[in-house]
Amino acid sequence: MNKTGKGQRAIGYRSKGIYVRALNYSSTVLYRLLPIAFCLLLIGCGGYKEPTLSDTQLKAAEFNQRAESAFKKGSYRRALNLYNEALKINRSIENIDGTAINIVSASAVYRKLGDKESAHKYLDEILNATAVTYRPMHISDAAFLKALLQLDEGKYDSAKDWTDRSLSSCDNPQCQGKIYNIWGRIELLKGDLTSAITYGNKGLSLNKSNEDEAETANSLRLIAEAKAAKGEYSEAIKFYEDALSIDKKLEASRKIAMDLVGIGTTFFKQKMCGDAVKYYQRALSVIEGLGDVQGAKEIVEMINKCSQTSSKNPDKK
Amino acid sequence: MGLIKETDERFIGIEKKIGLFVAAAVIGILVAVAAVGLQSDIFTSKTRIYLIADSGQGINEGTAVKLSGFKIGKVKRLYLDDAAKVKVELSIKTKYMRWIRTDSDARLIKEGFIGDSVIEITPGSAKAKDVREDGIIAFERTRGLGEIAAELKDELKPALSDIKQIVGYINDPQGDVRQTLKSLRIAAEGLPATKQRLDSLLADADKGVNTSAKKIDALLDSAKQTINSVDGLAKKVDKDIPAILERANKSVENIQKTTEEIKKATEQAAPQIPSMIEKGNDIAEGAKEVVDSVKKTWPVRLFIKTPEEKTLEVDSYE
């Protein structure tokens, strides 16, 4: 090895030493700064953050949430009381959104309790409001519920008007899907099967794109019902089965029973009583599990009707 | 070579130093033992007395014995005697024995409804004799909520059964009351027809006295029959109603008795209920404050969603 080579190595060692020292120094600084930085982070994060809602609004929100939970448990009276409490608080601070939310919710509970008069009265406060301007989404919700109430009463034309108003106030595809479903139902009940299928398909595509599974199943069931009424049985069964698989996934017992009854009835219309009874019996088991005596009675009647028909025409069993 | 030199000045007088240290430690231990003993009343003179209970339920070794609210001793042990009764040995501080007389009563009570069981001894009268070592005092167990409820249930049951029987008796379509009312109604319904016939009879009076007389006779017979029937029914009602009233009275008496029992039980429990509710409220409020504070603290608050009001989801197929 020559001299130059040794010199270069010496320079190399020197520069390496500088790097090592620099690295050591920076790591020392980092180690000292890290705890300080961590403490600063903790102080920053641990400091009290002002809530976005006032105590009164929080209280109203609590009542609203408890009401929803009571409703889901089937305690409708309790749910109604809690929604009314939330409504009272919102009125007292003139919170228009909160007021609208709780009016619509309380009205939905009244409908469930069978008090249609009160349900209408509550909704009219939003739909006929002059002094206060409610947001379109709340008007859409109120009109949607009003349409359902009219549908319950068999007033299809009025229901259609309210559906129209609900759709015109709905400013997002989320609500449009279910509005098309109800529109389709109205057409189905009026006997316009083609329109029912058209609205059902519109609802289906919107609900699918919104990933709203419950309403997607509703669209499928609506189309199935319309197709069965049109005599397109095999397609109807396919749609019912699709609806059934979603409803099973969602564990929506009543809807499962509806799908099974729908399939059974489609078979019954084709005079395939053996298959029909199988589905009716499955539906009966679901309804009995729900403890719905009236529903069970209706299904038993369907089974009896099927048995009578099959005994008259044994070949078509 | 040794590690420590024997002449090391640090070890000069080491025996004395160790001796002092050990002595101080021993004194310290003795003082501590004495303090604990004093605290635990080990050195206090105690008197042993007994009470006999039907059951040992709620009484345990260590259960406090109180007199006028002050702890004067505890249950030392309890065992079954030859008669299968529970003999409870109480260890009472001798200085308090002067208030325990032969007419003192011991009761097992609860400190509040959910508190510990305590044996409360009532001070005896001045005339009564002192209870000596190994003496026995009378014992009674106060009724718990469950026992009161069971007792009330037993009291209410016959009263409700009576009422049910009476209502059933009145409502029975084949029973006396309903049948009597039915007969009365039928009889009353017959009266307008009778009246109508009378009217037509009077209108036809001109047609012939003989005919009218016959009709009047028939009518009078009919009216007489109706009156007899109503009279019979009224007698039946007269006969039945006292029996019904007597049974109703008995039921009302039973209810009154039960109500009094309930009143007594409520009065017994009432003084403690408001304070319990107040305490419960305080505890709940405190807990809520703590939970609220925790909710607002990082990092818990990151996982808690601020509640917001939502419209109840309404399905298009409901």
Topology:
The complex is a heterodimer of chains A (317) and B (318).
Chain A: H1 3-46, H2 55-72, H3 76-92, H4 96-113, H5 116-127, H6 136-152, H7 156-169, H8 173-190, H9 193-209, H10 213-230, H11 233-250, H12 253-269, H13 273-290, H14 293-312
Helix pairs in contact in A: 2-3, 3-4, 4-5, 4-6, 5-6, 6-7, 6-8, 7-8, 8-9, 8-10, 9-10, 10-11, 11-12, 12-13, 13-14
Chain B: H1 14-39, E1 46-53, E2 64-67, E3 70-80, E4 86-93, E5 105-110, E6 117-121, E7 136-141, H2 145-171, H3 176-203, H4 209-269, H5 272-296, H6 300-303
Parallel strand pairs in B: 1-7, 2-6, 5-7
Antiparallel strand pairs in B: 1-4, 2-3, 3-4, 5-6
Helix pairs in contact in B: 2-4, 3-4
What can be said about this structure in brief?
Chain A has 317 residues and is mostly helical.
Describe the structure.
The complex is a heterodimer of chains A (317) and B (318). Chain A contains 14 helices and no strands. Chain A has 317 residues and is an all-alpha fold. The N and C termini of chain A lie far apart (105 Å). Among the domains of chain B are: 48-142, no CATH class; 148-269. In chain B, 54% of the residues lie in helices and 15% in strands. Chain B has six helices and seven strands. The model of chain B has no long low-confidence stretch (mean pLDDT 79). The interface between A and B is medium-sized, with 48 and 17 residues.
